[in-house]
Amino acid sequence: MQDKKNKTVFWVEKIALMDILLFLVQSRFADIRVNYDRFQKYPLAARALYFLARAGLNKIFFPVELRLDRTDAEGCALNYRVEKELNDCIEGFFTEHIPQEPRRFKDTLKSYIAAVLQGKVIFLTMAASEINFKKAPAGENNVICLNSHPLNFLLRGFYRDRGLVIRRPVISMRYITFYFRPFYYLAYFLLCKSGNYKPKSNISDIKPAIWVEYYPGHIHASWIGKIRAQGFDVVNYFDRNDTQITSKTLKEIEGRSSKWIDAHFPSLIRISRLSFSDLKGLISVLFLTPFSRQAWLKTFRFEYNFLFLIYKSVFLRYKVKILIQHQECSWKQGVQALAVERAGGIMVGYHWSAFQYYMMSVENFPQHVYFAWGKMMGELLRKKDAAHRYILPSGIWSAVNGHGPERKNIFAENVDFVISVFDSEARYNLFQSPGSLSDFYLRVLNIVKDSPRLGCIIKSKQLCPQSLLALPMGKEIVGLVEMLRGQKRLAIFESFKSPLAAAQSSDLSVGYGINSACAIAATMGGRAAINWDCSGFKKHPFYKCPGQKVVFKTLDTLEEAILKASKGDKTIGDYSRWQKYVNYFGDHSGVDRVADFLESYMKESMNTGDPGHSLDFAVKKYLADNRVGVDFYQREDLWEDEQ
What we know:
alpha/beta, 4 domains, 6-stranded parallel sheet
């Protein structure tokens, strides 16, 4: 029983009804305060808190709004701490418990554990930051309450040594059902294999194929139109929860003369050629090995091996020679990479945005070949020690050529300097928050408002201005937008348009965060571009260049840069120093290069039947055809150590 004289403050990750009941009982015997994350509540708990408030009985429960968009004492992003502690926690477990496991298995397991624990580590970091920020009074104890999960023990041990107390939660149904996953897979397998099933697909004649994960608008597979398929197919496979098969999507795919197949989980099992007897080895391992303290690891190992067998069988059946998927944070891509290799193929990967830091435990990068925009991304992968066999420079491929409308058709005659504004994702428990995005828009729009010769193009990732209205100070922001539109000094470009369209209609691009669109505007569009580093990513390569005028730490210095650029200062937003680092070839042909590589590999693979030789051949040809210099591979230590 706790001493009433010593107050205990509980920080609850996601409050549940059972938590409320237990805390109410505990409050009868101890002096406690319960700080719960106001953005994370179970529905029944939210109702209970509402009724307690109405009855005047919620004197111990307090909603808190925690923040990750803070910096530490050295001015560095709090997110660095999240990634470092997550990495150290997982690597510590590997060193102590599974040092002999193969690299591939550990990389995939690391991605899996990180996906489970990342949100919890973010909550721990935000809560610890808030505790330090508020400077708790002497005698007040702080206890962290995390949602129940079998992997919580990793965090309890890790943070115990760092002076942070994590309470054991009540075991939940989610905790229990975790251990039934193997039985769920086995039952699902039996159900899917019973009866006849015709695959949902337009593949009539199975040929060697490139399988690319379907994404609406095929933005991540714009190379498809460049492929001259001779004797092989390009197949769009559906496996994402957000990409269901509809008549609209099939019309789009078949309009490009492409093939498609349903690879969602039920269908994936049905189109595999596995029988129950093929799973005997997995089942014997599951039931005959001792039930140990690390039963969760046995559960994961079963899922890993089960999915490997399914994927391998499907890839063999459909002659998949190249696999391309776009779920960067999915641990299953590690299984897919191994499966396609054992089926006689390779996995190819590429990125569609600029990264702000390299330590990302949740991202596995298991591809055999990875295309990087430029040297900055290439060095990031090497710094992270990603397990690619080859890293190749492609240049930026993810933005098609964009031509914006003529300025005289958009703006009033008195406007002679136009800035294009690019935002980015902002949400609670991210290093970019709705609050900082609101501050960004207010500052930039007020700069334009106060300078009659300035015009502005907003190129948002969301529907605009509806998304702006949802921000803190949203009404004020939208008011400024409508006022400037009325004066013909502001235009809004649709979210689906290329960043190049906005950049080419402006003189200066201004980005929220270290922004990919600014990199595209500068290195593909030849426009000046600047960024507001709202998060504190001081270890980014841009900061290694003394006197750089590309990224700014405060809104005041950003405003000063905008005004200087509007008066003719050409040093503002000058990316020339970073051209090859961001967009290695400095052109718009990244898509063509990726397509040429895929085609070369497929032709050689079909001629020889040897995936290892074909990969080496295609890489050698790519390097020669594109005259890739040794400079791309010379190490420069662009990324500061984030440890």
